[in-house]
């Protein structure tokens, strides 16, 4: 459940490329492998925001998520092309008839990355005990642990273990529902049937890391990574660059028998301006740009030819509806926004069609239905009744709330994160609509992304801009935002999930019933009912559903697009210049030297 960094710059996410821990010069020069794929090369990517934390239990936003996806692995993972569940460190699994017991069979011989945390500096084999350790860290009371909700009230013994850690007396047996059968068999027992549990296990919170690393580095694991993934963290300079190099001991092979990954390395830079990022892409110094500011799209298509229409372009433009919703949040524990009538008035006072058609120039879809985007197969979001633009009704509701024509309504701030001018542009339009239709005055407060998240998670923000990207392809990942049991007791306690601190017994009842329902159609019907309850309560103010747009160099292969913008670089490769079909493009400059990869 990743918070989005900027409205239209869910930015160039963590990815990849270049140089590796291999001295084979030929391989660095795109050596051909079986099946016509190529080894070598650096995949360069840019982020307009810095990562927040690379420790798996603290990954709560996109930049960190997409970097750590290349470094850490869990029992299962998503398939980049269609988002189906695929084996990862578990080569197979069994689920009992009522989906309460999941048994995983681990691969043998998988090793952690070499690191100084191990006695001899060499990574040791991963066993079921490592997952038991990490899952108990997941169920521990710790400020760095943001993922307890994954097992909370779901895995047998998780809640009891969490309570024991609060008392500084962890239960000796650990989480009783996580059982080590032997070194290569792990069993997880649930309190109730939950057919969607495998989806939860694709999240960063459930990735495995060695106890030795946590013992040695502790909180410094936010930037010191020790995983099992296809790439190893070679160099991490916050605000400058992250360099990930090829893991030559990686366990996976492709269908042709080639060892994976193909790339020598991934380099992530942190240019803060999209214009600078685009310039680097045009020079051939980036392999991909994710999300363009609207004002740039026309210029790009004019200069290079309309790639969307098959124009003579030296890049590929990819567009797909995203599993992403953009919304404004309200602090329900505040005296102002605990009033449902105020929240409903705000929702009726904005014209979502105008925002999408004019401010966004059609790059998105108005959020007229539920909080769940209409991108999920078999989830008929059009059955949900959303908010139309109705200024008269908005005025009436605000008057009923005790603020006739805005009289007595306090001046408040709308909190925004920096990064991307579209944030400000949309905010200006929305605040103008609220002022014209409700006579309320709201100022913008723009701040760095990390501070923005800290404020809204600790209850310091009254109203804020946010967005949510699916962590896995199930509507539950959005509805979990409104689950009342995710709200901590104190306002100053962090509420990563449900920062609105919305609580509804009716919503919780429907949501809990949906989690326990094995029948697919019945579960989705319960999801829709819960979505409608949250919408009727105006839990948030949905604005629009995002489309994913990216520019990709013609040399890139294997980087399939999906609605989650989930990226797995394991099978991505770069074509040599003489194999690229299309207009001549400038040969990329590599700022990662051969020496850096040794």
Written overview of the protein:
The protein has 598 residues and is of the alpha+beta class. It folds into 3 domains: 1-72 and 229-314 and 554-598, Periplasmic binding protein-like II (D-Maltodextrin-Binding Protein, domain 2); 73-221, Dipeptide-binding Protein, Domain 1 (Dipeptide-binding Protein, domain 1, Alpha-Beta Complex); 321-547, Dipeptide-binding Protein, domain 3. It contains 16 helices and 20 strands. The strands form 5 sheets. Strands 1, 12, 13, 14, 15, 16, 17 and 18 form an 8-stranded mixed β-sheet that branches. It has a 4-stranded mixed β-sheet with strand order 2-11-10-9, covered by helices on one side. A 4-stranded antiparallel β-sheet has the order 5-6-8-7, with helices on one face. β3 and β4 form a beta hairpin. α9 (340-348) packs antiparallel against α11 (391-400) and α15 (505-516) packs antiparallel against α16 (520-536). The longest helix has 18 residues, at 421-438. Residues 3-28 and 583-598 have low confidence and may be disordered.
